[in-house]
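[Solved] Which block belongs to which protein?

Original post:
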Amino acid sequence: LERTRAVARVYLVDLTQAVELADHLENDALRPSLEQMSPQMRAAQGIAPLAKRLVFRTDGQTLLGPRLSGLAVLNPRELVLLSNNDFGIEGARTQMFRLTFPAPILN
């Protein structure tokens, strides 16, 4: 689940090629931080981004907004998304949304 102020997206990633980060890369004092490193700097550290495939986005949705904050997999064709109520500010409520896809999105 990836979100910005205006849009939320759900991606499918394959973790079978993922590697554990070296301890020194998880040091909060590291500069540049992992997020600030260029692709070349990350490659030099042996870090490669995971391939991802977009399976859902909230663009143009009237019911779902960008405040999605949680996700659960029910089965290969169904996901549940959870909205963030921002502690009830502006009357927002926590909501759950069940997404059913016409074909399996998971293997």
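(Second protein starts here: sequence line, then its structure tokens.)
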Amino acid sequence: KNKFNDIGASVHNVILKKTQQGQIVIFGAGHLSITFIHLFNLKNLIDFVIDDDPNKCGKFMPGTNIEIRTSKSLVTEKVETCFLSLSPETEAKLLSKKRIFFKIYQM
């Protein structure tokens, strides 16, 4: 049996269960987020992606109908889980400014 398929199914199922508790979002609309969404077949489970780049906001993640929104959505929406898909530098800046929004769990 293919180990990657087992891992992918596990990731998908964990996120599927989380959707029952609230919205699932990704912070960062870069290539790693796109890969994560497609690799684990999450395009129907991710509610939206957050990115404050004005060139990305209002658009959609490639190959999906997942809208890219600003970080204000963290306040206006009931977000259960937010995956960070950021460079270490950007993640540090984000957490210093918006730590109140996040319970941090390392993966």
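Accepted answer:
You had them paired correctly. Confirming on the second one: The longest helix spans residues 3-18.
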